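re: that chain from earlier
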Amino acid sequence: MSGSESASDLYERLLAGDRRAAARLISMVESGDITARATLKMLYEHAGRAYIVGLTGSPGSGKSTLAFRLAGEYRRNGHTVGIICVDPTSPFTGGALLGDRVRMQDIAADPEVFIRSMGTRGAVGGLSVATNDAIDILDAFGKDYIIVETVGTGQVEIEVMKYAHTCIVVTMPGAGDEIQAIKAGILEIGDIFVVNKADRDGADTAIADLEMMIETGPRTVQAGWKPLVTATAATNGAGTEDLAGAIERHAEFLRTSGLLEEKTEQRMKAELLDILNLRVSLAAEKALEEDVAGKELVRMMTARQIDPYSAADVMVAYLLKRVGGEE
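^ sequence. v structure.
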């Protein structure tokens, strides 16, 4: 690690409540600094206590403001909060807009609230390995609740359901989200649906439409749980208390049904698969660009001497051989 920072230094400082240490470690994992792994390994046993809330929905539905209001509700009840805002990443610079953080300035000064904007870095579903690492870091940092807000580009992302204990889908009146729910399959991922900006015309219709579709739609989230529909006006905080209550109802359902442990196992599997996919992808990319065998494989494909599926079989065998040779 750079300068005088060692894995044990960051570990001790973070567990002692040093916000700079938490910020530094998240920056390291976001930039792909492999030296952060030593600290993450030590912190892992201290994670697993936070309740993770996922917020997803179309752009403009007010997810950031809703996250800010929800955090305020938790703080009024004495809970500590971490907020991770996943922003679009530039394909050229790798940077993110970080606009969400601007919207949350009112709570950013609260020492018990930790806000972090992160880029998707091209991750499918708007989440990345670094995002999951950040969840673990804030968990070990002692946050009671961690709110993960997805990027919200195009149709809603579904990856967040793998990581959150409670997945919230945010819609708004007149945006066509109720019809998109059928197309995008969000009825199958939401534990709670929020009609935000409910002070606008059409809110009652939006709520009724969602409730009808939930009643007649598929049940693939958790057996025995009927998704809830709540209304909020995040700009003035209306309905936030009801939303927090709905989240607690779902959390209690998970605890009493035994599904909380199942959710945790699901997240562990997703986290492991994400790391494996990233490592295999990077190893394959490096082999295709730098290794003689990889370059030859690309040449053969270009000359139509081998099809992509057969080439993939060759590359998998090549990578496995390399791993075996390293061992």
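The first strand starts at residue 51 and ends at 57.
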